[in-house]
Amino acid sequence: MKKIINSSIAMSDENTRTSAEETLSGTTKKNVFKRLIPFLGPAFIASVAYVDPGNFATNIQGGSEFGYILLWVILVSNLMAMLLQTLSAKLGIATGNNLAEHCRNHFSKPVVFIMWCVMEVVAMATDLAEFLGAALGFNLLFGFPLIIGGILTAICTFLILGLQRYGFRPLEIAITVMVSVIAGSYLVETFIVKPNLGVILYHSFVPQFSGTESILLATGILGATVMPHAIFLHSALTQQRIIVKDPAKLKKLFHFQILDVTIAMGIASLVNMAMLIMAASAFYKNGFTKIATIQEAHLTLQPLLGKAASWIFAISLLASGLSSSTVGTSAGQVIMQGFLHRSVPIWLRRLVTIVPSILVIAIGLDPTRTLVMSQVVLSFGLPFAVIPLVMFTGKKEIMGILVNKKVTTFLVSIIAALIIFLNIYLIYQVLFIG
User: Fold this and answer.
1) Residue 245 contacts by C-beta under 8 Å, 6 or more apart in sequence?
2) Chain centre to alpha carbon of residue 231
3) What confidence tens digit (pLDDT) does each residue in 401-417 have?
4) How far is CA 366 from CA 129, 136, 355, 357, 379, in A?
């Protein structure tokens, strides 16, 4: 029976590749939607990083304390993320190597070692946010102590990661289902709070701040939205998924990857905005401007919006934590293997990255504040992903016909400069102003 199941799932991957080849060759008679399906998947896995528990923490704090004014930060951050994830996917399909492998091949050994160290710190910060989020989800849904929730998170992550032995398609489907749960949950939450559409549109397009704390949160939102490990991971997800050498087919493949990114990241953007809208409509509007923790948000939702709203919130948090923890572990494996050309069993990496999260739970640090600060750490790591990505995708000798256009390189360079500026400003605020 096991052999039959394995064979069936392996055939699913092969069918995906065959369908993709037929579409790229123009020999299929399927409708538009069926032609698109084989190319969907990598961006949905990467998009999990953009709806992880860190987003819950920063968006809830931002919405409850400042209302709708930081919506524009989410919109801008997600547009940046779309461009960066598109370039990462393009690097993988154009070269057959991922971003970490290109860094190892083109930079000196000391630089590679430093980059690897930085990205490992980022990976730990990422895993901390995701692990804590899932543990909180178990706590809010079932009343388990956080330490038990952490153990359950580890077990569930092992099970989900086990799907990788059956090919890329089962894991893509599992992650997409969990993203759908998160998106569906916030669709219901947004319907329940009945926000003011005009105010939402205004604050989505008019930049505003309200003091130092709003700038700190805005940077945290950026760190929670544009994720360095997702940039590294996306190039690995596309590098061997559908292999194409013909230039015309390669361009078609890239166009389908753009659609994959647009759909997946578009959903992630709407979910992020819905998180902040929910917090602003439920908390800020009713005078609860100091919702400092995810637990408080969950408890406060029940008297304001009813028991169903608090349950939906907890379900979405759990789905977010489990899916993002799985993806974060995979990203860590890609980073280690790419930079060092070495790998460890994924179960061992999962065990190692659990330790900081268990320590945070054991010593009683505030989970939500820890989540917010972990996102700030992520924003520090962004230049180490963005700058090499711009460099490599702008070189014709590396990218061939998929080399960036000058306007693309210009836009991404501005994004990189903006990220670096925000990080320097944040360090100044934290160290010298507090």
Assistant:
1) none
2) 9
3) 999 999 999 988 888 78
4) 12, 11, 17, 12, 21
Decide which of 100 and 123 is more confident.
Answer: 100
DSSP string for residues in 41-54: SHHHHHHGGGGSHH
- Asked if residues 190 and 274 have their Cβ atoms less than 8 Å apart, the reply is yes
Q: Report the run of H or E that residue 293 belongs to, with start and end.
A: none
**Taking the model in full, what pTM does it have?**
0.85
In the chain, where the domains are located: 2-16+35-283+296-433
How far apart are the C-alpha atoms of 43 and 39, rounded to whole Å?
10
Cβ distance 365 to 132 under 8 Å?
Answer: no
C-alpha–C-alpha distance, residues 134 and 323, integer Å: 9
* Residue 243 tokens, joined: 């292999």
Single out the residue of 160, 161, 166 nearest to residue 16, CA to CA: 166
112 phi/psi in degrees, rounded to 5: -60, -45
Residue matched to tokens 């860590």 = 332
Domain 2-16+35-283+296-433: give its CATH superfamily: Amino acid/polyamine transporter I (1.20.1740.10)
